[in-house]
Specification:
- There is one protein chain.
- The chain is of the alpha/beta class and about 270 residues long.
- The protein contains 10 helices and 4 strands; from the N terminus they run αβααβββααααααα.
- The longest helix has 17 residues.
- The chain binds zinc ion.
- Zinc ion binds next to α5 and α6.
- InterPro entries: Uncharacterised_BSP.
């Protein structure tokens, strides 16, 4: 039988799958209970309090190769939505407690991208809008990490990279060793330091990573527990000026502070 109506030859409009009658979306009372379930199953450290930014960031996950061993391990070990939001909460608590929300960077989104690449991980802002961040994490690195360490290492790297999404850097002028040191200081404070880390003063203060992270931890004891927050705020809205930053935050030059740190390490041996 021929049909003349043009509408009968158009492709049908896409249809959503039918919801089962018992689905909560079918009621007016659709409370979201996934957060509670995630908190119960994720086994992440409980934070003493939350620092809430003016705008809640959009968190996204992109898996470039689902079949890779690293993606497989990540999905098996980590509740991704909870781990990402917990990393944000961890970073904001350590860097912005007691700080006006208007002094927190306006990060609008963080996308975690798991893919095969060189190195461990890095964070970048989109060229068009630096408020949108991407964390690239090497799936090969995840798969080569011993299984007993995989979950802690994933969470630790996530926290480190999440710091780069929220820290101030004097418009990128701060020494890389300082911004990397702040990132590892937050990882240390979050209880996610890997077992091979150790205090080490046989280098310069801005050697970065855990070398500078432990130095910042020592500064907390000597110059107040908010010293890293003050250093971070001193890198907001102006370029890095080493003389004035360390004088205003600690009353001394960083070289003098580093010499004291070295001395304290020798005395502790
Ligand atoms: Zn880093």
């Amino acid at each position: 039988m021929s049909q003349t109506s043009s509408s009968s030859t158009d492709p049908p409009a896409p249809q959503s799958s039918a919801l089962p009658p018992s689905h909560p979306f079918n009621t007016d009372n659709s409370h979201n209970t996934t957060t509670t379930q995630a908190e119960q199953t994720s086994n992440l450290p409980i934070l003493s309090h939350k620092v809430v930014p003016d705008r809640k960031p959009l968190l996204r996950l992109e898996l470039r190769d689902l079949s890779s061993d690293g993606s497989f391990a990540f999905l098996r070990l980590v509740h991704a939505s909870h781990a990402l939001s917990h990393a944000v909460d961890t970073v904001l608590m350590h860097l912005y407690t007691g700080v006006s929300p208007s002094h927190i960077p306006g990060t609008r989104s963080v996308t975690l991208i798991l893919r095969e690449m060189d190195g461990v991980a890095y964070t970048t802002g989109l060229a068009l809008d630096d408020d949108h961040k991407e964390i690239h994490f090497n799936t090969k690195y995840i798969s080569f990490t011993p299984e007993s360490r995989q979950k802690e290492e994933i969470l630790g790297v996530l926290v480190h990279e999440m710091v780069h999404c929220w820290q101030h850097s004097g418009f990128g002028s701060a020494p890389v060793g300082l911004t990397e040191g702040v990132a590892d200081w937050v990882r240390l404070k979050a209880g996610l330091a890997p077992p091979h880390w150790k205090r080490d003063s046989d280098c310069e203060w801005d050697a970065g990573y855990q070398h500078t992270g432990y130095f910042l931890e020592w500064l907390e004891k000597e110059h107040g527990e908010d010293v890293v927050r003050r250093i971070n705020q001193a890198l907001r809205g102006c370029k890095y000026d080493g003389d004035s930053l360390w004088q205003s935050c600690c009353g001394k030059s960083v070289e003098g502070l580093w010499a004291e740190y070295k001395k304290s390490m020798k005395e502790a041996q």
